[in-house]
Amino acid sequence: MSEFWLISAPGDKANLLAWDRMNTVTSKANLSSNSKFAIPDLKVGTLDTLVGLSDELGKVDSFAESVIKKIAQYIGEVLEDSKDKVQENLLANGVDLISYLTKFEWDMAKYPIKQPLKNISEGLAKQITQIEADMKSRAAVYNNIKGNLQNLERKTAGNLLTRTLTDIVNKDDFVLNSEYLITLLVVVPKTSYVQWQKNYESLSDMVVPRSTKMIAEDSEGGLFTVTLFRKVIDDFKTKARENKFMVREFYFDEKELKCEKDEMRKLASDKKQQYGPLLRWLKVNFSEAFVAWIHIKALRVFSESVLRYGLPVNFQAMLLQPNKKSMKRLREVLNAVFKHLDEVAAASLMDTSVDIPGLQLSNQDYYPYVYFKIDLSLLDSS
């Protein structure tokens, strides 16, 4: 189960009561796996500042989650691999995401707690914005190379009527630099090989005898050369078409073929050179963004808990990993344990048909306790 619930409730002096009550009832019934979520002594500031910050943090939270999902999904695109393989690369500070989350420790060096909450929030938002901008520019370069390479590779995947012939034809297959003669390429269906061999010399005048040979074959047919005089090209094409032999519009140009081969080699080389550094950057910055996101969640729990439960700051933040089959029951148990914190919210949860005046928040978002969801299924569509 990749969904976690980050909640908080007022504590006693040692912050034990809220934790013990909640942990006892949910663990016994196997409703969730629980751990304490440590939040340091942050600077509260004024209540007015906290109210404004609460709204701002909600936006930063959503933005950070969307950037993390983009990075996770782009790692999948770059790896061109299975979801399991991608998951192995999604780490935070070198550990898997669940381990990081359940053993969360505030990073004092990155986000000093002596500064105002607003400064921490703005710093986190700036960090995420920079990561997103960098990813866009790096992805644009890589996607351009990859797209151009795929376009060239796609040309080698069609049938003999449409695919590029760069890797098929050779100089020796053609009569070149002749004023009078030209070599054409003709696609012949497999069922018509005998008919082609029997009739190609008589499809028009001035076809060079015994000038045909098959130089490539796929599941549908073969690619044959035939040499004839230039002045009968149109007549030969018409007669060939009538017999279901398709002449390819292709004239051998060594320079052009070399350019195409060189371009493909260069793009493949460029893609390979970009791949390693890009993947490393994505992994490092996924970790950075994820760590920032969980710090944003911690800020939200802190500010919301102070607004709900008042001063002095005394609450216990808790992280629950619900058992998927027991989510509804877990919600009911939490409501029972914490209903004394907000009787209005508790009553509205008991009866969703009751319209409680003054309760503006949707029932899905508001509970008697502070609640935020953390969804780690980052590879699903956002």
UniProtKB/TrEMBL annotation:
Coiled coil: none annotated. This is V-type proton ATPase subunit C. CDD domains: V-ATPase_C. GO terms for cellular component: lysosomal membrane; vacuolar proton-transporting V-type ATPase, V1 domain. SUPFAM superfamilies: Vacuolar ATP synthase subunit C. GO terms for biological process: positive regulation of Wnt signaling pathway. Keywords: Hydrogen ion transport, Ion transport, Transport. V-ATPase is a heteromultimeric enzyme made up of two complexes: the ATP-hydrolytic V1 complex and the proton translocation V0 complex. The V1 complex consists of three catalytic AB heterodimers that form a heterohexamer, three peripheral stalks each consisting of EG heterodimers, one central rotor including subunits D and F, and the regulatory subunits C and H. The proton translocation complex V0 consists of the proton transport subunit a, a ring of proteolipid subunits c9c'', rotary subunit d, subunits e and f, and two accessory subunits. It comes from Pseudonaja textilis. InterPro entries: ATPase_V1-cplx_csu (IPR004907), Vac_ATP_synth_c_sf (IPR036132). GO terms for molecular function: identical protein binding; proton-transporting ATPase activity, rotational mechanism.
